[in-house]
Design a protein that fits this description.
The chain has 614 residues and is of the alpha+beta class. 25% of the residues lie in helices and 33% in strands. β15 and β16 form a beta hairpin. It starts with 11 loop residues before the first strand and ends with a helix. The mean pLDDT is 92. InterPro entries: Glyco_trans_2-like, Nucleotide-diphossugar_trans, TarS/TarP_linker. This is Glycosyl transferase. It comes from Planobispora rosea. Keywords: Glycosyltransferase, Transferase.
Amino acid sequence: MIEVDARAGVDVSVIVPVHNCRPYLDRCLTSLLIQRVAKEIVVVDDGSVDGSAELADLYASCHPRVVRVVHRQASGGAGAPRNTGLSMARGRYVFFCDADDYLGPEALERMLAMADRNGSDIVLGKIVGHGRKAPVSMFRQSADRAPLEDSAVYNSLSCFKLFRREMLERHSIRFDEKLLVGEDIVFTTHAYCHAGVISVVADYDCYHLVDRPDGSSIMQRPESRDPLAWLRMIKKPIELMVNHVRPGPLRDHLLRRHFRMDAFARLGRPFLEACEVERKEIAAEVADMCDRWMTEGVRDRLGAVDRSRIAALEDIDRLVRLAHIELAVVRRGLTGLRWDEGDTGLAVTGRVALDALEPDRHPEIVTGGVTLLLRPRQPSAGQQEVTLPVIRQGEEFAGVIDVGALSSGVWDVHVAVECEGVIRTARLGADRDGQIARPAPRMIGGTIALPYFTRPYGNLSIDVGGHVVTPSGVVRLVRSRWAAGHRLVLDGEITMGAITPDVRAMRRLVWRERSSGDERRAPVTARASGAFTARQAFGRLGAGTWDAYLELDLGGPPVRLRIEAEAELVAPPSTWWRGAALRTVKPYATAGKGRLSAMVRTSGPKAFLRRLLR
């Protein structure tokens, strides 16, 4: 633990608002004390009456150079105590941590390192939820610089981040003390508007967001989820943002977040749970937001269901149907999966339907077209999702995936259902008949295609080229012998179940030194039957133990298979002089698995004489 006093430099001021959270405070403060940075912990007791204040004072008495406590009258929200803590902070950076949450042991160390390396104004550390939903989109990978317009960082408007204090002070960024819900959204939106560099730490669980079993936190109370109150609150940060960001692509990108996550989200489940009068009020608030801030740039960034909602804001019944369609469960099942005989098509049969919530109360939902949708898991240049037609009868459908038309990569299979202009998609395969087995791999134009079911969910995907599914095969040594030039000649054959790799697929023989990882490659002469011949000049290999592999090109990453060998088929050792050094090469089959390796030794005249005299 690093402790500092008032005369020393403070890197991070951690501000902890506390109100009646005694059962969680120990874990929170302990997680902060073990952070390996120069820190101070400012605990602001907001009128606690459950022993939290006394516990905070105990921590301050035990760690007087690190923990400071201030007591104030209860404000009813987190904004006022956070502002109090911010006014007391001395650190270069500040971090806000709620008293019922906690940090990972290396959280501040990693975020501070990221900030110092990049001159960051804001650093987002990965948030994980414990009984509560945590944001995901902005934590897919770490980023030294995550521009607002080209990333998902603005999706996260909580204040659980590392902020440069000088930026907060220069722009008078503070929490809105009048708001009991959303005060951190206003604060973080304001900070984003002035941040020059925003960074993301996504490879470590920094902030642990905890659900209180008693539901006593502000965000767990029913009034915090009131859709009308939320819509009226969210207009304040939107107004703040548009006053700082001029019209254009960046503003449209930020507005899209507010419309999708704040406005149109209230036209989903909260809309169905509202009464008739409340539904009209919710629609009116969303319509007002659209009148004020909806642009063509924002509209172009929205999905089909949200564009349909914009057109239906004066039609409450239509909004209800759209909510039911969006929230309906896509009930689907895979009933058949096989290769077409002698073709590159993968035949898929299944069933699909939409099951609406509250089946006795929802309006009739009539589904339209059904298609299969193939999405590249990690799209490369030129790769786009592929839509395939199916034949449909009731809930049953049948289609064929032309695997030969797919480029190299992993393709995830979805089923898509159209309903009143809204497309609902879902992964296919997890619910399948027990008799359905994974189809065997198939070679298509020199590329291997491997249908498989993902783990742990069991969804159907197609690996074209062997990117995540390692192609299986057996390479056997048929004969080996020494030839001129101290070349070890290997005759072998490869089998890969029912498929035979193309002669162009057998790229080369690779000898890899077991300790150093050094490699030597030799060309391969391949034949259509799966047989091959390779020659390795062992004069090029240094001392060590070398393992033999056959390397294949199956349309994706190179595939290496160890060469299996029976001891009687392995050539005898060979010894020769090279200058003043004696070189000995001993091919052998390894114990147990019987794989081809070779031991190479070199020795000078003295070592050779010692060996002879033993």
